[in-house]
Amino acid sequence: MESSNPSHHRSFAIPVGLAAGVAVVLAIGGFLVVRAESRVNKVALAAAPKSVTAVAARGTLYRETQTYVGTLRPWVEASVGPQFISAFIDTVLVRPGAAVKRGDVLATLDCRNESASSLAVAAEARAVEARQKAMADESARLQTLLDGGFVSPNEAEQKAAQTDAEQAQLGAERAKLAVTGLSVSDCVLRAPFDGEVAVRSMDPGAFVRPGMAIVSIVDRTTVRMTFDVPEIAFVAVAPKAHVSIHALATDRSIDGFIARRSPAADPDTRTIHVEVDLDNGRRELAVNTTGEVRIEVGAPKPATAVPLGAASISGTKGTLFVVEHGVAKKRTYASLGEDATTLYLEPALAGGTLVVTEGRALLADGDPVTAQVSPSDPALTSAASAAPPAASPHAAEETQ
Fold it and tell me: Which residues contact 297 (CB under 8 A, 6 or more apart)?
């Protein structure tokens, strides 16, 4: 009976184990190769549909709009300062934003010199008045003596002439007193109307001359939107024409009507001055700020509205990409006009047509696309459901 040899069994197991290990390595390698090959794109990138964002064009009516830039002006505005005298400022009682009533004191000037001059003139006037009264009484007495022959006619006439001269001197002194009174009253600056302080130009201690402003007052209960238009727009800005005004300072839009229009153009600029009155009882509008005026002219006409960023505009033409059966088509239409966000094209572009808004810079005419419709407008979803979906070899893979 032959006995088993352990060394023989061990020598046989080694090659079997090696072969098994090689087979496992080859199997794993093959699996990895197959897996890698399965993820390789076999379709050319140029032929793959491009992902874009689209919206549905909207049929609407378009009316030509003209836009002008103007200024929101206060109804009344005044710069308050001295008119007759030069002096140092004593006090300034208001600051910007303060509400004032007509007659309120705004500032005072150091007018000691003017006050003293006024007192001197007043005293001189009283002295002249006393002399004139005395001479008038004396002239009257001489007239009674003249009738009795006690004085000569020449003496009586001279006294009457002196009385008239003193009367004239008295009138001159009273006129001088009125002038100095104006100077004294000019030392107290008062509000000329109800309003608000807009600007404080000077402080106490400053030296001011006639014509220099210390404070500025505005009345903005009613605001005037003022702007100028070319002479060819004379008919479009007729009184009572409707306008839309956008105040840049408050980012607020207001509807109004043209209140007045200049009957003549400026000879230098050939522009017509126009004003619109706006109620500002709540003081919500800031004055001396910029506003944009929009005026609709002409009759409404059919148009198709698309986002302004969806088209390239050249002259009076707009070029864009539309999505038809999963393919991007380059189309050019006549442009009727535009506003801040919307382009209005001729109605040859049908309403509901999908228009590419994002991704159009990488498109060429005839490229296959997958359009993702913008959810901002519910009408776009229904327009997108009518368009047949395009198959993409990477769609399932991208979803995973």
Answer: 63, 64, 65, 66, 236
